[in-house]
Write a structure and sequence with these properties.
- The complex is a heterodimer of chains A (226) and B (282).
- Chain A has a seven-stranded mixed beta sheet with strand order 5-13-6-7-10-9-12. Chain A has a four-stranded antiparallel beta sheet with strand order 1-2-4-3, with helices on one face. In chain A, strands 8-11 form a two-stranded antiparallel ribbon.
- Chain A has 226 residues and is of the alpha+beta class.
- Chain A is 25% helix and 29% strand.
- Chain B has 282 residues and is mainly beta.
- Chain B folds into two domains: 147 residues, Jelly Rolls (Sandwich), CATH 2.60.120; 107 residues, Cyclophilin.
- Chain B is built from three helices and 18 strands.
- In chain B, strands 1, 2, 3, 4, 5, 6, 7, 8 and 9 form a nine-stranded antiparallel beta sheet that branches.
- In chain B, β11 and β12 form a beta hairpin.
- Chain B is elongated, with a radius of gyration of 20 Å.
- The mean pLDDT of chain B is 93.
- The chains are: A alpha+beta (226), B mainly beta (282).
- At the A-B interface, β2, β3 and β4 of A face β13 and β17 of B.
Amino acid sequence: MSVIIQQFGERGILLSWQQKIDEKTSKKVHFYNQRIKDQLSDFIIETVTTYCSLMVLIKQSQNYHFVNIVKMEIEKIVLETPKFETIESKFWKIPVCYDLSLGQDLQSLSQQKNLTIDDIIKLHCEPVYTVSFIGFLPGFPYLQGLNQKLITPRLSTPRLSVAKGSVAIGGSQTGIYPQQSPGGWHIIGRTPLEFFNTKKSTPCILQPMDSIQFYPISLEEFKDVR
Amino acid sequence: MSVEILAPGVYSTIQDQGRFGFRNIGVPVSGFMDKTSAKLANSLLNNELDAAVIETLGMGLKLKFHQRTYISICGAQCDITINQNPVSQNSVLEVRQNDILHFGKVQKGIWCYLSIAGGFQAEVVLSSRSFFQGITKKSKLEKGDRIKTLSSTQPILNRTKVKPQSRSIDNPIEVFKGPEFNSLNSQTQSYIANSSFQVSKAINRMAYKLEKDHKLSAKEIITSPVQPGTVQLTPSGELIVLMQDCQTTGGYARVLQLTEQSLSKLAQIGSGESVEFLLIEF
């Protein structure tokens, strides 16, 4: 079992698998995340998953050895279930308006990449992306699966304000800004849907490991949905 | 029942224990920067230790009470007055309707805590009252804000003046090894454990950056979980101590992890002062 399990601060246990970004590793992380949450729910506050790591945060206890006991339980869970299964996830079709008025960086990206704007839209809508994890900002999904032709280094100077719903490319990833915020990714369009709302019982619609695909809509359709 | 902000000072927010259970959707923990002082302020008033307080940075916060109540002020040492009369910190103070509390010059430390009987009743969002941009309606207190409070019917007879924890700089900051500590070469490991580092000007609720040290460097890692108290080392030799509002993930090597107590201690160390890390075992 190629996983390192170590204590991370007073109340953290960190599980690190082989350090690489691929689907198999991500699936493994999420399988064990689910197992640990199901079996040790009384002892843990929350977990954080990324590409190949899982951090488990343990509740406070008077017992000095408590974290160690939970760590041993985690080791047992990982050892007892050496084979992982793919956990069920959702598939979302997300409308994006790639109008130049909303995708401020489409034009510059088209010149930089020597692709037409239609090519960019086609390449961006083709793949089925996987939500690797939610981070950077509340509700911001890091999406894996961007076409190589669209990989673009981030802006050298981030924008102070990116509109809510903006769909953007940063490095080898694409993502959606769930709320207005600063940002250094190339904005290529905007979705009229709301993905993050603290008033909802599920504040964040997209969950790690969900699959998503974008489809283009016109400016009129964008305004209608809103 | 409320307290009115007449002037917000440099940077004031409402904070409690923080927001737990939402880090996997990218929501930072937030919460008191100096837990020890905030809890001390609450304990003086017989509040829940995690009751919401006003956390203020630097001078200038001025507020008006709209009812008689009890307050306590702990954390950074500053010149505090009620109706322009100096009052002492680390004790219970009685305030009357229309009294004006003012935070003057900071003598020592960074974050100052104002607790009120029953705690400030700011809106609870995702199980916490702690301000955070994009989560709570406000990200900082502004002039004219009114914060709800509870009516305190019973006088607080706690006349003890507590002695806050001493914060001598000779006192090293206790740290555990971080996940990437052992992958550093041995010179770097011993250098981190045996040198003193200066706190830079870049300090806020997200992170405290230490002055760049060219003897240090670490390779970036694949974006992985981080938490308040994680010390990151950048390829260019910058040590960054993540604080309460830090993101949930990061791509720099996690070389150290502060204990919760040392994180409270570090929070009160200002730009230009130096820190030493003391490695301890689990």
